[in-house]
């Protein structure tokens, strides 16, 4: 006798199928449009599949329009921002999770970090513009690295705090007993154990930074420092929206964070559920 | 040993930091620079500039770097760069309505007195006038009164707004009444008699001003008094948002130039106003257009005033005050606008302003809009009011016109609201 499926299970399949299509279709449409020629886009009827798939839009975006330079800038700026945010995040998180710090100080630091996260970027873009100009960092990637690191620091602190708090102090204390100093214990004991958390934080900070547009637009002016999102918006011209090139750029922009997220999904989920939502 | 463990991380960090270092460009001062950087608008308007730039490098050894931005972002970028007094750009590409703002702010170097650029008789005076600040005719903003006029920008895209229609289906309209009659006559299922470029702010204002002027209306009179709510102006608004809209595709309030040229190119529209950039890029582009050779281009039809008045939309090159390569930048402008270079420039899709090129018979065959552009320039098209407040005025007017087109306000309410807001704005700015 076959097991009877509940009516809920029967109903769930089409509901989830519809949801999956709603989520997946824009991605599918992005990919398909990126493989269409300009002539195909000017046909009167829309097609679900490209009639003559072409990689020309990718060549156009990366080579002919030179956006590979901006892509490289994005990778460098995001990579450095992740590095700086993690280093600063560890410097702040380590004392409040591993040392005897009064709860008032700990909560104060965490609340301060949280308050930074609530700051709308648009509210600080003009003062930052002034600061960057004064420091002579206008149109320099270092300006973006500094600002992205600062903006992502609160998230990094909260995420690392969750991970570090999960590591029992006894393990570190065992290393002290064996003669290790605090630095050695941190480097050889704590860091390897915290590695999944660091990786998850790095991936999320990288993803946030990757799609940042406002500061990149305001604080840069040439391909010396411009990032990929700034180049992508240039594909809407006054008389034409270059849909296939824009779709190709969108696919390229999507690819790297998507791959990173897939690789790190287990840690990211853990990172987002550890201590981030509760103060221990 | 311990240091060795950290070495890979340090190497990676050092590589990342070194990758962030700005590239050295050399140049500066009076010496020949290695590179000139141009901020340009992305799209058809700078395509020919990009195509001929390598020729300048071959000739002089100076590399031309072109940094592109979309229309709105280019204006914002220029404003912030000028405010920062940054020498990032040696040359900037500017739409002509931006000139009053940059002229008033004294963001650009005079090209005539500083670098000796002179008018060329082969280029219509109006083309030089639009790059001159304060404006040599018409009302002058209070802040610019009494100042000596200087050439601060030279046209490299001789845009004038014109009119296009399906000449395979009917005759050229001479008046806006004929435009309306042709629109009603040719409208059918999946084919629109007229396309209104009705998107809010700049697009609808650009579409509307030639109609407004042809109807005898205007935004300001010669003393900066607001006249957008007078009888002639209101009549023009009603003509756009009621008469022409009746033959236009649904959703006109969100249609921009890209949608308009697409509708023409796929054979679903009869007529509309048009910029040269739409013609070369879409309507006469054989790879995408189904109507190549079936569309004709004419100067703006006449209105009740008896005149058809086109609108300038020139793109100019200017030299920012902060540029340390002013002479080299001015030399580039002279080279680019020279008769010889312009022939190559046109061959690469550029939109010229030289009479000899616009009236060249062989070039007219390849560029079917050249004759209409020549006539439009000869007739001396209007420019948008030469006020440093134009961007704000355009936003107010374009927002209210868009509301009337969308049916969210009556034409009377829209012009009254726009006029009141513009009066307040101008009063606050000292007009």
Walk me through the structure:
The complex is a heterodimer of chains A (280) and B (431). Chain A is mainly alpha-helical. Chain A has one domain (58-273): Orthogonal Bundle (MetI-like fold). Chain A has helices at residues 7-34, 38-41, 56-64, 67-98, 103-117, 121-134, 141-166, 169-177, 182-210, 214-219, 228-233, 243-273. In chain A, 35% of the residues are buried. Chain B is an alpha+beta fold and 431 residues long. Chain B folds into 2 domains: 35-157 and 315-352, D-Maltodextrin-Binding Protein, domain 2 (3-Layer(aba) Sandwich); 160-311 and 387-428, D-Maltodextrin-Binding Protein, domain 2 (3-Layer(aba) Sandwich), CATH 3.40.190.10. Chain B is 43% helix and 11% strand. Chain B contains 17 helices and 11 strands. Chain B has helices at residues 2-19, 44-60, 71-83, 99-104, 125-129, 176-186, 202-214, 231-244, 257-265, 276-283, 326-336, 339-347, 355-358, 361-366, 370-378, 390-405, 411-428; strands at 35-41, 63-69, 91-95, 132-133, 150-151, 154-157, 160-166, 271-274, 295-298, 311-312, 315-318. In chain B, the strands form 3 sheets. Chain B has a 5-stranded mixed beta sheet with strand order 2-1-3-11-6. The N and C termini of chain B lie far apart (75 Å). The model of chain B is unreliable at 1-29 (pLDDT under 50). Classes of the chains: A mainly alpha (280), B alpha+beta (431). The interface between A and B is large, with 37 and 46 residues.
């Amino acid at each position: 006798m076959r097991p009877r499926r509940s009516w809920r299970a029967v109903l769930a399949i089409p509901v989830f199928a519809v949801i999956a299509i709603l989520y997946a279709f824009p991605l599918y449409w992005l990919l398909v449009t990126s493989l269409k020629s300009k002539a195909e886009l000017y046909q009167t009827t829309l097609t679900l599949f490209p009639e003559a798939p072409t990689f020309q839009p990718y060549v156009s975006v990366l080579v002919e329009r030179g956006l590979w330079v901006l892509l490289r800038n994005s990778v460098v700026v995001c990579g450095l921002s992740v590095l700086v945010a993690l280093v600063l995040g560890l410097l702040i998180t380590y004392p409040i999770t591993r040392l005897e710090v009064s709860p008032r100080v700990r909560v104060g630091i965490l609340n301060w970090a949280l308050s930074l996260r609530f700051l709308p970027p648009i509210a600080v873009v003009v003062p930052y513009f002034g600061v960057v100009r004064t420091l002579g960092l206008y149109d320099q990637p270092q300006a973006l690295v500094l600002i992205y690191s600062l903006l992502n620091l609160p998230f990094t602190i909260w995420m690392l705090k969750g991970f570090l708090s999960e590591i029992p102090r006894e393990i570190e204390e065992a290393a002290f007993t064996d003669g290790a100093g605090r630095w050695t214990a941190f480097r050889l004991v704590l860091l390897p154990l915290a590695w999944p958390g660091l990786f998850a934080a790095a991936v999320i900070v990288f993803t946030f930074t990757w799609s940042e547009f406002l500061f990149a637009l305001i604080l840069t002016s040439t391909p010396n420092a411009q990032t990929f999102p700034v180049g992508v918006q240039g594909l809407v011209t006054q008389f034409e929206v270059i849909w296939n090139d824009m779709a190709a750029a969108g696919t390229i922009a999507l690819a790297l964070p998507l791959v990173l997220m897939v690789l790190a999904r287990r840690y990211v989920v853990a990172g987002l559920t550890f201590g981030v939502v509760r103060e221990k | 040993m311990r240091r060795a463990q950290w070495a890979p991380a340090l190497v990676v960090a050092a590589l990342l930091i070194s990758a962030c270092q700005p590239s050295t460009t050399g140049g500066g001062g009076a010496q020949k620079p290695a590179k000139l950087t141009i901020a340009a608008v992305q799209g058809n308007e700078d395509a020919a500039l990009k195509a001929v730039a390598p020729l300048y490098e071959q000739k002089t050894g100076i590399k031309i770097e072109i940094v592109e931005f979309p229309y709105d972002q280019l204006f914002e970028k220029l404003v912030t760069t000028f405010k920062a007094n940054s020498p990032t750009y040696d040359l900037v590409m500017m739409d002509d309505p931006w000139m009053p703002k940059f002229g008033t702010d004294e963001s650009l170097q005079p090209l005539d007195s500083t670098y000796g650029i002179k008018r060329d008789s082969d280029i219509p005076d109006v083309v030089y006038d639009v790059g001159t600040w304060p404006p040599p005719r018409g009302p002058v903003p209070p802040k610019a009164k009494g100042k000596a006029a200087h050439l601060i920008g030279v046209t490299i895209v001789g845009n004038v707004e014109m009119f296009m229609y399906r000449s395979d289906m009917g005759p050229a309209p001479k008046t806006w009444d004929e435009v309306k009659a042709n629109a009603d006559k040719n409208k059918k299922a999946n084919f629109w008699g007229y396309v209104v470029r009705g998107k809010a702010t700049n697009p609808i204002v650009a579409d509307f001003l030639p109609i407004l002027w042809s109807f005898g209306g205007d935004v300001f009179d010669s003393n900066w008094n607001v006249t957008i709510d007078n009888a002639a102006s209101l009549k023009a608004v009603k003509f756009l948002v009621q008469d022409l809209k009746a033959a236009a595709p649904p959703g006109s309030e969100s249609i921009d130039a890209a949608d308009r040229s697409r509708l023409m190119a796929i054979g679903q529209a009869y007529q509309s106003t048009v910029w040269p950039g739409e013609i070369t890029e879409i309507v006469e582009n054989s790879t995408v257009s189904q109507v190549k050779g079936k569309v004709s281009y004419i100067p703006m039809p006449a209105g009740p005033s008896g005149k058809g008045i086109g609108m300038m939309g020139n793109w100019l090159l200017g030299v920012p005050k902060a540029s340390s390569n002013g002479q080299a930048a001015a030399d580039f402008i002279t080279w680019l606008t020279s008769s010889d270079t312009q022939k190559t420039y046109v061959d690469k899709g550029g939109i010229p302003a030289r009479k000899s090129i616009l009236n060249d018979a062989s070039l007219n065959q390849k560029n079917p809009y050249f004759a209409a552009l020549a006539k439009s320039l000869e007739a001396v098209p209007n420019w948008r009011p030469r006020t440093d407040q134009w961007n704000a005025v355009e936003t107010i007017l374009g927002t209210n016109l868009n509301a009337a087109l969308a049916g969210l306000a009556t034409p009377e309410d829209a012009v009254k609201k726009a006029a009141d807001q513009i009066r307040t704005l101008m009063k606050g700015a000292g007009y």
